[in-house]
Amino acid sequence: MEASDVNVKIVTTQTADGESETFCTETDGTLYRRDDSGFSLAYTEPDEELFGSETSVTLCDGVLTVERGDALTLTVEPGQKTDGLYRMPFGSMPMCVGGKELTFESGDDYLYVHAVYTLETEGQLISENDIKLTVQLLYADSLL
Description:
The chain is mainly beta.
């Protein structure tokens, strides 16, 4: 499988209890597969709280999956609720991901994903989330 060096930019807006907070992350990563229906991407988390965590993002057949090491697996599929588990140092928290919206576009040197979903635990809404993921190829000669 051919790999390409990419720049990854993630803008996340999380709304909980009527309060919204936006987080921006930018790092380099590796794009392993890309076609008209999706991609596979890996990068290391640069932010202080998650620093060094290996994250993989896969979009395939309209389903977005985010895996952050052993701590988190999150699956977003519009119109579906999927169960997950968030592992923290003090224990695990069951969660349910409610997929609301997922769009994907790609060009010769970029990918763009927009995902909207909710997180619930034990039937209680934790947050509504809006993620915009932009992947830009770093070198023109590395196009897949």
